[in-house]
């Protein structure tokens, strides 16, 4: 009796181990895009090896949740197709969140051009690319606010919800996924203007004021005087608008996660 039962137990254990391993691979495929596109997770300040270890750790934690009551096919071709579909879901979710940081950096770039800070560009440590002072400052502040409002927890909770909307053994509806990403991407410029709006208005008033002064006092070198004044005005308004920027990021974080989940549908 024991001899007949032991092979069945071993076979069951092998099947469960294979199911867990296949499920882990699919979860890792959905988690990996976070470390390529998502804010903070994809920061170049985090070494690639550390990002890989964190991705594996998150996948191990999410695998039991994602596998509830599901049997993952073990056929190589079917599993490869599911991996590709998992990557699509992960990239769609991470892309939606990356738009938030892109809007913040775009707002800083607009302010740099208008205020004159773009003349002196620096290397942004968050992505290794060149950027002017305000763009770099907004990138750092945006990342800090992202941490303060527990944006990383928002991201992981949203990623966990994707397994309820699109299970591991199902694929996403591509038209809905692409349409949602396109709609969110089209709002980057509008979001950037919302952030940079107060500074742009202040600099516009400053330019108008110097235009009036140049007509009244033609001997005044407006370019020599106007540049430091515009820099001072830009810094003053940027500092005053930071609390509103924090509220905006907190609100948009919730909207971004909701939009990312709303764009997911089972094919």
Description:
With 267 residues, the protein is mainly alpha-helical. The protein has one domain (2-262). Helices cover 77% and strands 1% of the residues. The chain contains 9 helices and 2 strands, in the order ααααββααααα. The protein has a two-stranded antiparallel sheet. The protein starts with a helix and ends in a 5-residue tail after the last helix.
N/C terminus separation: 47 Å
When the domains are counted, the total is 1
Overall shape = elongated
Strand order of the largest sheet: 1-2
Helix content: over 70%
Structural class: mainly alpha
User: How much beta, percentage-wise?
Assistant: under 5%
What characterizes the major β-sheet?
2 strands, antiparallel
Stretches where pLDDT is under 50 for at least 5 consecutive residues are 9-16
Tally the helices.
9
pLDDT averaged over residues:
79
Instruction: Evaluate the radius of gyration.
Output: 25 Å
Number of strands: 2
Order of helices and strands: HHHHEEHHHHH
List the helices and strands and how they pair.
Elements (H helix, E strand, L loop, with lengths): L1 H30 L2 H4 L10 H19 L9 H40 L6 E2 L6 E2 L1 H16 L2 H15 L8 H12 L2 H29 L5 H41 L5
Antiparallel strand pairs: 1-2
Q: What descriptors fit this protein?
A:
single chain; 267 residues; mainly alpha; two-stranded antiparallel ribbon; 9 helices; 2 strands; elongated
